Amino acid sequence: MSATTIHLVRHGEVHNPEHVLYERLPGFHLSERGRRMADATGRYLAANPQTNTVAAVWSSPLERTRETAGIIIGRLNEARAERAVVAPDGHPLPALELAVDERLIEAGNDFRGKRIGHGEGALWKPENLRLVRNLYKPTWGESYRHIAARMSAFASEKIDEYAGRQIIVVSHESPIWSFRHLLETGHPEHNMLLRHAALASVTSITFDADTHQVMSITYVDPAANVA
Q1: β-pair type (3-10, 56-59)
Q2: How many Å apart are CA 3 and CA 101, to the nearest integer?
Q3: What is the DSSP string of the chain?
Q4: What would you give as a GO molecular function for this chain, any one (predicted)?
Q5: pLDDT digit string (tens) for the chain, length 227 residues
Q6: Domains along the chain with CATH numbers
Q7: What count of other Cβ atoms lies within 10 Å of the Cβ of residue 124?
Q8: Cα atoms found within 13 Å of the Cα of residue 163, Cβ hemisphere only
Q9: Distance separating alpha carbons of residues 48 and 56, to the nearest angstrom
Q10: 0.85 surpassed by pTM
Q11: Which residue in 16, 35, 19, 5 sits closest to 200, CA to CA?
């Protein structure tokens, strides 16, 4: 029996001094702290013999995820060069390059561009809050079911493509948690306030490569203490 492990990494902190709900808006990059968070996670993955031999790194197309993935790739490639890391079969590992997939993108959100706070364009206005009718079934954008479906399609494809190997996938809180919740409970609906996917955290899901059944789910937060 062979297994495929997908390490789902959430991007680091974003530079957002105006507290805008940026969702899929362009131009939102990692903050300096976010870059340190990505580096902490990259160093963790590079130091772990179970993750420094990954076959590929995939990312959402948004800036914050591509930047996080780039920092992680830098740490992994550095470790491979310095420590002569080889694949489990003993063959040399090629340098990693970033691959992008639209299915990993942030959830669609009708509040995109709104500000968290008061004043013009603020989220917390009656006309906006009327859309928030059910935290378990978003009424303000893309449904958890649709989010989980696109993540599931990506994962199913990669389980076969990378059978017996591991990959890193950099995405966003909602896609990561909706997919995990689907796998653990059979449904993706959840209370968004109870998610467990911190910035730059790693949710590792191991699948039986033949049946696609979940074998294990683990979670670590390498950037928890980054100031």
Answers
A1: unpaired
A2: 22
A3: --EEEEEEEE---B--TT-B--TT-S---B-HHHHHHHHHHHHHHHH-TTTTT-SEEEE-SSHHHHHHHHHHHHHHHHHHHHHT-B-TTSPBPPPP-EEE-GGGSPPPBTTTT-BSSSSTTBS-SHHHHTT---TTS-SSBS-HHHHHHHHHHHHHHHHHHTTTSEEEEEE-HHHHHHHHHHHHHS-----GGG----TT-EEEEEEETTT--EEEEEEE-TTTT--
A4: phosphatase activity
A5: 799 999 999 999 999 998 888 999 999 999 999 999 999 999 999 999 889 999 999 999 999 999 999 999 999 999 998 877 777 777 778 899 999 999 999 999 877 777 665 555 445 555 555 555 566 666 567 999 999 999 999 999 999 999 999 999 999 999 999 999 999 999 999 988 899 999 999 999 999 999 999 999 999 999 999 99
A6: 3-109+135-220 (3.40.50.1240)
A7: 12
A8: 10
A9: 16
A10: yes
A11: 35
- Lookup: tokens for 78: 């550095």
Position 10, amino acid: R
In total, the chain counts a number of residues equal to 227
Q: Could you tell me the two tokens for 37?
A: 């968070």
Query: Closest Cα partner for 149 from 99, 114, 183, 115?
Result: 183
Tell me the residue type at 31. S
